[in-house]
């Protein structure tokens, strides 16, 4: 069994409009844009990162905004809900704030004993706020939301699956412990994790497969402390029969990827080196940062990207 995973590292989704996406996450949700760079495979598209003050692993939501891309169709084989942690007793504040800013709200309910508010992002992104207690992760407070109500990072995520058995086995191998079951959903928990430490598996037999597009989650990344632990995790996965990519340098972390039995794309990402490797911590996300291979084309790339501010 793998013992080096501490919870989530980041979650990456697709969007249709960079400026709208940036405004929603930095102004409506009050997160910090901790990095603006480009898609390593398509440098004509941003890669935007939002999180807490330092972009701590377990707090970072990232987006590839492909201009005008068709909205995705929710379904089987994907992350079905991204769950953000907020302090207990703050959902009334968030209901009012989200409504005032035109966000589409869903149900206010209780999941595994915690109050939850579902809502959608600009592209129908499946988001929720989960009330949590004693979350010591520092919030970003320069985004117009005070510390007593601000988002702390992820609480976890849920997966939509035809059958949960194979993914349950994988999560157990990755160090998650099976917890409670609520209806058709089973919770898995990383004991002593980084706060972003729950995964909910939802069984949805008979449901159609998802179609990727704007609002869809591209992949979900799990955190390990360093490169050596990542290599240990990779070996354990390969020895178990998973087809895992070689280690890839993503500038701010090292990454490996593999497709799960249920169809969800998993990444294992290192906590090192972090988002301050190429800019001062006080100015994260203010300037466009390019991978070294694209720096000679900066003028062309910048000319093709929509400015994030009006």
CATH-level-2 architecture: Roll
Q: How would you describe the shape?
A: globular
Named CATH topology: 2,3-Dihydroxybiphenyl 1,2-Dioxygenase, domain 1
CATH homologous superfamily - what is it?
A: 2,3-Dihydroxybiphenyl 1,2-Dioxygenase, domain 1
| Helix/strand/pairing category | alpha+beta
| Amino- and carboxy-terminal Cα gap | 50 Å
Kindly report the average pLDDT value.
Answer: 97
What order do the strands of the largest sheet run in, or round the barrel if closed? 2-3-4-1-13-16-15-14
Largest sheet: 8 strands, mixed
What is the top-level CATH class? Alpha Beta
* Radius of gyration from CA coordinates: 18 Å
Count of helix runs: 5
Total DSSP E strands: 16
Helix content: 10-25%
Summarize the helix and strand pattern as letters.
EHEEEEHEEEEHEEEEHEEEH
Uncertain residue segments: none
User: How many domains, as an integer?
Assistant: 1
SS strand fraction: 35-45%
């Amino acid at each position: 069994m793998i013992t080096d995973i501490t919870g989530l590292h980041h979650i990456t989704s697709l969007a249709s409009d960079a400026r709208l996406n940036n405004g929603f996450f930095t102004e409506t949700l009050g997160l910090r844009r901790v990095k603006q760079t480009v898609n390593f495979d398509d440098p004509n598209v941003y890669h935007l990162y939002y999180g807490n003050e330092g972009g701590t692993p377990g707090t970072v939501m990232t987006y590839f905004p492909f201009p005008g891309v068709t909205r995705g169709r929710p379904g089987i084989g994907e992350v079905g809900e991204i769950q953000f942690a907020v302090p207990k007793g703050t959902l009334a504040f968030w209901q009012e704030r989200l409504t005032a800013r035109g966000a589409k709200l869903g149900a206010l309910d209780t999941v595994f004993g915690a109050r939850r508010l579902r809502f959608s992002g600009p592209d129908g992104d499946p988001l929720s706020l989960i009330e949590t207690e004693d979350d010591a992760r520092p919030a970003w407070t320069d985004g117009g939301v005070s510390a007593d109500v601000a988002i702390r990072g992820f609480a976890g995520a849920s997966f939509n699956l035809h059958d949960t058995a194979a993914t349950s086995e994988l999560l157990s191998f990755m160090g998650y412990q099976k917890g409670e079951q609520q209806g058709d959903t089973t919770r898995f928990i990383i004991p002593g994790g980084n706060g972003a430490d729950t995964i909910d598996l939802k069984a949805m037999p008979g449901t159609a497969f998802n179609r990727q597009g704007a609002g869809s989650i591209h992949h979900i990344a799990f955190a390990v402390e360093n490169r050596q632990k990542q290599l240990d995790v990779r070996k354990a996965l390969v020895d178990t029969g998973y087809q895992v990519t070689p280690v890839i340098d993503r500038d701010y972390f090292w990454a490996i990827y593999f497709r799960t039995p249920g169809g969800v794309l998993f990444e294992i990402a290192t906590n090192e080196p972090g988002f301050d490797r190429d800019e001062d911590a006080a100015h994260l996300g203010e300037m466009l940062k390019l991978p070294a291979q694209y720096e000679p084309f900066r003028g062309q790339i910048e000319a093709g990207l929509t400015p994030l501010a009006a």
